[in-house]
Amino acid sequence: xxxxxxxxxxxxxxxxxxxxxxxxxxxxxxxxxxxxxxxxxxxxxxxxxxxxxxxxxxxxxxxxxxxxxxxxxxxxxxxxxxxxxxxxxxxxxxxxxxxxxxxxxxxxxxxxxxxxxxxxxxxxxxxxxxxxxxxxxxxxxxxxxxxxxxxxxxxxxxxxxxxxxxxxxxxxxxxxxxxxxxxxxxxxxxxxxxxxxxxxxxxxxxxxxxxxxxxxxxxxxxxxxxxxxxxxxxxxxxxxxxxxxxxxxxxxxxxxxxxxxxxxxxxxxxxxxxxxxxxxxxxxxxxxxxxxxxxxxxxxxxxxxxxxxxxxxxxxxxxxxxxxxxxxxxxxxxxxxxxxxxxxxxxxxxxxxxxxxxxxxxxxxxxxxxxxxxxxxxxxxxxxxxxxxxxxxxxxxxxxxxxxxxxxxxxxxxxxxxxxxxxxxxxxxxxxxxxxxxxxxxxxxxxxxxxxxxxxxxxxxxxxxxxxxxxxxxxxxxxxxxxxxxxxxxxxxxxxxxxxxxxxxxxxxxxxxxxxxxxxxxxxxxxxxxxxxxxxxxxxxxxxxxxxxxxxxxxxxxxxxxxxxxxxxxxxxxxxxxxx
Amino acid sequence: xxxxxxxxxxxxxxxxxxxxxxxxxxxxxxxxxxxxxxxxxxxxxxxxxxxxxxxxxxxxxxxxxxxxxxxxxxxxxxxxxxxxxxxxxxxxxxxxxxxxxxxxxxxxxxxxxxxxxxxxxxxxxxxxxxxxxxxxxxxxxxxxxxxxxxxxxxxxxxxxxxxxxxxxxxxxxxxxxxxxxxxxxxxxxxxxxxxxxxxxxxxxxxxxxxxxxxxxxxxxxxxxxxxxxxxxxxxxxxxxxxxxxxxxxxxxxxxxxxxxxxxxxxxxxxxxxxxx
Lengths: 580, 276
Prior knowledge:
heterodimer; A: alpha/beta; Pyruvate-ferredoxin Oxidoreductase, domain 3; Rossmann fold; 19 helices; B: Rossmann fold; 8 strands
């Protein structure tokens, strides 16, 4: 007898408070405890530009199945206070069936919140916290949330013990008392938001952010050197890599600016160490000239661009996909390179590792287009499998007295690279047009042949099945997207499929070189294609149109940040179209 | 590799590529001094990396028989820093000019001095942008007339040696390209000295600055002995006539320590941090 599948269930919780109130800490503890209890989930944060004291909300979605994006509406809002709440109210729409827990001492519930029509119940969070010596409101809030969703105190205490052990028994005890006060208050209110049975057989969860995952992917792929210049929202990639590299015989060096960090990475890679740097739009702009050098001199390097709203300084803490154009077209001259994009937080690991493999195999710069919504989200994922993507650079080994030709014309365009220290391999890597030997040249044949070779490397490479993901039902109606928008698109398709509307998803992980054949094969039979992306200009749509003739009728749905494109928006686009 | 130093000559470090420089350019002499110094230092050419940016002087890597990297304008120090940290076993030499090094690459100069990675930075200063046919550089005199700045830029010249000292360079010297013997010796000392060594070489541009042909008459070896006191060195450099050559400062600051090794640590241990 087979057991019936457990119904998929998820609950979305927002814990809000002024920056410094500890909303993020409370959210983090809930997420980790949920993982311990065999659930999945993810947490994003809504923070303003202030370093301390601005608005902050921990946005959580906990579920009995893996989730890749936040859900549409929130079931629970627990407000430690209402400071600046009106600013982020739009980011956490409440379901009508939802519940707001408000502290009466924090003043009236703002209109922007009551407008959602959810039930409001008052709990004296501050008073409960103050009744405990050293007690904090955020732990009461965590207790309330745990009580409503049915998360056991034991799992929460396991996390708190580990996190607060350094601060001593008193700190742990006051947290316990606050948690229990919250749990008790929730029990008295008796509203049920329980997720239900957890998958205890399938434990071994990982708790990781997209920024950490892309760094780990890079290390798995073979990266041993990173150069860094801090920039929101990419800094965590670098902050994770710094101690991690030090533990495995590598190093991260902080540079004076992005002009330097990209060159440090190129220099280290020239020396034979697979290298990486991470940045966001403004930093990528500064790196473009040197990325062209890496393309011309054929030095592998990986740049992770954790995209944020642009142009210029834009909105540093919010996501957008608007660096697609600069990543694809930002080089001067014809500079073959690779652009790829993770399709979910978990996929940051896969794509990060793949990027290193591609850079090293083809001796090219690779730009990974992650974004804030992936990079700064923390997810509970299944323990990932080991991938076979490894840095495997074709290197020169002296075999004869034949003079070494660094840029020899080969069938696949990839020429063996001499690593400094190798006798007989001396050459000068150069951004000037060069002969096969590397000597500067203004000859027409050298320009043509070296261009051809560099193009061939990237164009003829076998990207296999990794170019993208195809899922959903049917073939006539298709959502075509890329990068982080894949997750809400998948969620939309699940909803639509459950309503009996057949929709297929085609999501591109490989952006450049354009995977034309694979894409057109995936789109076979398509009669209607909705192109979805988070840009104002419709960059992805223009890019697709410039590179192939898409079949069927085409519609676009695109808008800029700061609010992520949601599954609901995509669902309603498709519903309207399917019915027309 | 311990090959006796007398087994090499400068020819072992020189390639067969004909330089693009104008006849009479000071950089020919600098190339000769560098290759002589490398021969005397005794490491084989494959263990030397010569890194540069853009400009006349930055063409040097391909004229040597070492590993080279001719990068983009102004970024040679960053490229070299990445290489040296990743490959501490190599001898890293960086070649630049007054435009590449002090204008577009100025910020990297400050931070390379401060970072104190063990490498040697040689700037061929001819006080002009030569490759673009004669524009004022950061070290050009304020009244030097050109098409781009008619009547002169009106700006005071940049003081690279003082700035190097203030930024933490561990070795500061000035040489004249025509004095091959002392330039060679200074480069040897610079390479041997741990940390970031900066050698400014006055290298005349006979095409756009014919007046610099007079330099050979104007330069003189330092009238004072080298010092390890940066304040003393700075005072001397600020009050000399700019034609004073020799090793002016030799510091004792510990160089940047690279931790990159060929060992492969346990990635599983890193991954355990994510397990719950």
